[in-house]
Amino acid sequence: MDLRFEPMGDHGVIITCGDALTDETFHKVVGLLQVLEQAHESWIVECIPGYINVTVLYDPMKIFYIKMVEQDDRNVYTYVVDRLQQITNQIEVFSETDGQTIAVPVCYGGMYGPDLSYVANYHGLTEQEVISIHTSASYRVHMIGFAPGFPYLGGLSEQLATPRKDVPRKQISAGSVGIAGNQTGVYPLATPGGWQLLGRTPVALFDPASDRPFLVQPGDSMQFYPITELEYQCWEAEK
Amino acid sequence: MIHVLKAGLLTTVQDLGRFGYQKDGVVACGAMDAIAHKTANWIVGNQANEATLEMTLSGPVIEFESDAVIAITGASIQPTIFGKKIDQHKPVYVRAGSILRCGYADYGCRAYLAIAGGFEVDRVMGSKSTYLRAKLGGWKGRALRKADQLPIGKETNQQLLVKQKLIHRLQSNADFSQANWSVPVWDYGINRKNITVRVTKGKQFDWFTETSRQQFTSLRYQITNESDRMGYRLQGAALQLKSDQQLLSEATSVGTIQVPSNGKPICLMKDRQTTGGYPKIAEVITADIPRIAQAKPGMFLRFHFVSLNEAEQALLNQNQREEQLQLAIRWKREER
Questions:
Q1: Containing domain of residue B201, as a range?
Q2: Which of A105, A156, B99, B192 has the lowest CB atom count within 10 Å?
Q3: Weakest mean pLDDT among A21-25, B9-13, B55-59
Q4: In chain B, what percentage of residues exceed pLDDT 70?
Q5: Residues of B with CB below 8 A from A33's CB?
Q6: Nearest chain B CA: its distance from A8 CA (Å)
């Protein structure tokens, strides 16, 4: 398996899976993350996927003690990379099966999607066309970052790529579905932001009280489908 | 129960952090100065990971509903009880009804208040740390406010014994008593104006121009007022990339020094976002994170590159010092 190992400070290793964001790199990142998590190494604190790499944060003090009893004189980083290579060498080929596809209802336009008409005009499309393009694709969850449960999604049609707003909004409601450049995404928390807002979902991406606090995982896909304002309100009322 | 009479500038409940959810975008949080946090807990006989109050620059005023054993470490914050000065870095017994007033941090930036038994707040996703931006964990997911009432956990038998010893030292009409021993103040290696922190090369170090790489180590950077638990924004020579390279977002960590397009470096701290798309010029070594945590806005930072070996050795040395401290405290507490 062709992987590149680099240090992140004195407590992390960045494992790069490829130089460009290709299908192959995506599957490697997702596969590598699974293998590392299933390895259950006591010194791994956690693993964080990026677009083309996985960062392993480790506990240097645990490694010092492990090295002490294994009578290993190498430095911590060398030891960690060696162990990670042993773990990853066992992988012959990463499966190319995707994770779960999660269907996410979105109420497009109106008060929930104040920028739908702007995006439509910007591209010379009707609002309905924007909705149908946005709902026809399945978006890959490459990584989660920025805020709890915020998915970095790939696969937005170039027909919808729209620059951010010149002046960011002071507050964007949780669940807002928007576009920024060639990215689309869902805001899990109320936050300021410059995204063009197409609509809003009543489904929580992050619920700290739940047994499964996060709706999506890296490797999953998201597919949006339109709902009416009334359906949105019913959904909200049932929460 | 403790009653908050005045909240201070930013007083939050913190433990050592929330781990295992960074891949889900949940930031790690935790005490900015983990050494001071742990030391405060050890002094009162708590586990290292028990929650403390992190008090920033200007401390709170707190009334104790029942008697308690407390310790204050980290920044020197001029604590008094009814106008009488109390010592930091040692166990202090306070009588029920006492009012503790913390002042301004004249040395350091963050002080830690531990109480025997710990603060009884729920663990959210495995941690008591306050995650301010997501409004979860800690006390109601936010910084303390006037009129908050925080419950205190149950003390162990050993903690009750130490409390008894302190009660014996109490003068008849005093509101508090203090142990006759204290922990040496941790040497953060900072003076009023300047600090040097050791760094290793960041992943994108080679992306920067030769001039910028030199400026980064030869010039000093001032900590701006836009510095908080998320990160320290630094003022100084703008650092430039050789070419306009775009970075695909990837993980960040505590101590990561990232450089956004304006060229002004940001040193990421405990409430940092889990991922970022800015090039990383350097990573502060783990052993020097407490030093930065205790640096105030306005102070000047200098960066000194070291090898990974040196960074690891510094951490090992620091950890040995911590373990000695922990043992010394335990023996002193167990002394009859």
A1: 194-305
A2: B192
A3: A21-25
A4: 100
A5: 23
A6: 7
Contact (CB<8Å) B200/A7: yes
Asked whether residue A95 is domain-assigned, the answer is no
**What would the pLDDT profile of A9-20 be if each residue is shown by its tens digit?**
999 999 999 988
Alpha carbon distance B154, B119 (integer Å): 9
Q: Which pLDDT value is given to residue B206?
A: 97
Of B275, B308, B312, nearest to A145 by CB-CB distance is B275
A51 versus A191: the higher-pLDDT residue is A51
Do B20 and B159 lie in one domain? The reply is: yes
Same domain, A135 and A18: no
Angle between helix B308-334 and A60-70 (nearest 10): 90
- ipTM score for this prediction: 0.94
- The two tokens of residue B249 are 């977002």
Say how many C-beta atoms besides its own lie within 10 A of residue A80's C-beta: 23
d(CA B324, CA B334): 15
How many angstroms separate the CA atoms of B263 and B238, rounded?
Answer: 4
Distance CA B167, CA B222 (A): 47
Cα separation, A36 vs A41, whole angstroms: 8
pLDDT for A74 equals 94
- Structure tokens belonging to residue A156: 């937005």
Instruction: Decide: A164 and A146 in contact? Cβ < 8 Å.
Output: no
Contact between B19 and B119 under an 8 Å Cβ cutoff? The reply is no
Determine the residue of chain A that is closest to B199 in CA distance: A9
- For residues A106 and A201, what is the distance between their CA atoms, to the nearest angstrom? 4
Tell me which residue in B20, B124, B285 faces A9 most closely, judged by beta carbons. Answer: B285
CA-wise closest residue to A106 among A32, A173, A48, A52: A173
Residue that the structure tokens 């997911």 belong to: B141
Strands (E), B95-246: 99-101, 107-115, 149-150, 176-178, 194-201, 221-227, 231-235
B199 lies in a domain? yes
Mean pLDDT on B70-77: 97
Mean pLDDT, chain A, rounded, equals: 92
> What is the band of A1 on the pLDDT scale with cuts at 50, 70, 90?
low
Cα–Cα distance measured from residue B128 to residue B140, given in angstroms and rounded to the nearest whole number:
11
For residues B250 and B121, what is the distance between their CA atoms, to the nearest angstrom? 33
**Token couple for B305:** 């590159």
pLDDT in tens, B85-103: 999 999 999 999 999 999 9
Is B80 in the same domain as B11? yes
Among residues A71, A102, A105, the alpha carbon closest in space to that of A216 is found at A102
**pLDDT value, residue B174:** 92
What is the total residue count of chain A? 239
